[in-house]
Amino acid sequence: MKCHYCEDDAVYAAETDGVKVGLCEQHFQERVEELADDERLQALRERTEIDRTE
Fold first, then answer.
1. What pTM was computed for the model?
2. What's the pLDDT at 52?
3. Does residue 6 belong to any structural domain of this protein?
4. Is the pLDDT confidence value at 49 over 80?
5. Residue 2 maps to a domain
6. For every residue of the chain, which 3-state class applies, written as one string?
7. Residue 27: which domain range?
8. Best label site of 1, 12, 18, 28, fewest CB within 10 Å?
9. Percentage of the chain exceeding pLDDT 70
């Protein structure tokens, strides 16, 4: 499987309703960083009281 954004091999894949999308390492990291900065994710964390343990 190839990355959804480029021609590199996908190292991660997500599937929803039978649709599967692959991401290479670089694009996976970029998407995770975007989500981490998203205010909607912060609001969800606050509503569900998700605590991060390390």
1. 0.63
2. 57
3. no
4. no
5. no
6. CECCCCCCECCEEEEECCEEEEECHHHHHHHHHHHHHCHHHHHHHHHHCCCCCC
7. 12-49
8. 18
9. 89
